[in-house]
Amino acid sequence: MTKFTKLCFVFTDEEYTAWCRSFLGIPPKTTIGNLSDQVGFDYPVQACLAWPHRGKSRFLDADGCHAASHCPPARRGVAKKHTNLVRVLEQAAKKAGLAVRVEPGAYELLLGDLSKTECRIFPKKASADYTKKQAVIDALELAASPACAMTEEQKGIHLQSLINELPRVAEDDRTGLRVDLAIEHKLTGEARWVDVTATHTGSPSYADGEIKAVARRQMAACISSMMDVLDPNKMDPSPALVARETVKFQKYARLLHVASKQVTEGKRKKTPVFSAMAMTDYGEVGPKSAELLEIVNQFQLKSESDGRRSDGCPVTQVVKDFRRQLYVDVQLALAAGTGRMMCDVGRVWR
Questions:
Q1: Which residue segment(s) compose the domain that 19 sits in?
Q2: d(Cα 75, Cα 54) in Å, to the nearest integer?
Q3: How many distinct structural domains can be found in the chain?
Q4: Rounded to whole angstroms, what are the CA distances from 296 to 61, 175, 254?
């Protein structure tokens, strides 16, 4: 009989039912009551009471596209989905004997090498004009170089003048970039910065690319079957996930650039590895979400170093149970957040 440990997040019956309806394509439960027949739907639909917003349609669909289209009442579910995933990874990393920090900012990630004011050069939301301002990065490299002839006071004045020329950032964006998790192996100095993101690939904005990708995989599978060879496209990821990972890597590249310079200066042992853990609401995991496998590997090493267990359970079985539980918890975290989105979507919002 399969046993599961207690979840590190809340997953209510209401959320589970709502997620099951969405996953199976069953019309959502009546929560608002203004049911009507609409063109494009083969079932009576409810109209969102918080509309208009960024969503293209005001009607609540079975798949959850409206809930994922920035409907204000569904924001709590979006936040819950993200928080659940972070908690699952945090708990697993701690069980693997790794040190974990949740949501550290640029100041902590860069070991305090830059002041909190200087860390504003890494905003959470960088405009196209902002990303072109490479002069600050170049100035930081020059100031850290042994060949720099400026005094510490002159360095500070020069850097501050460049920072002052940067475009103004939003009032709620004064702390700079944060990652969801900073996972570190204390003995080896290896660090992994993890940022979690989830997307709804059934949304109209992704539908065209997703359908084309599915068609390519089906064609490749058919040809491979006819030729009796392995299907090269069988494990191709969702194009929306690949795009989301690319955006995340570009966003945090500047932080990693400074961290790599700290390695050459002897301020840290190894350059951190960045992981964008991208997932869909349907449970698909992005191709570069390597932290799940890394956490499992670290748990295996810890279990082997701990020696023989008092319950006599072999290490291979312990690691197998840990891996299964981790992947199940990730899926349940997605389901709980998506279910909450479906429960709250369309309600009155102030």
A1: 13-106+182-201+265-344
A2: 13
A3: 1
A4: 38, 33, 29
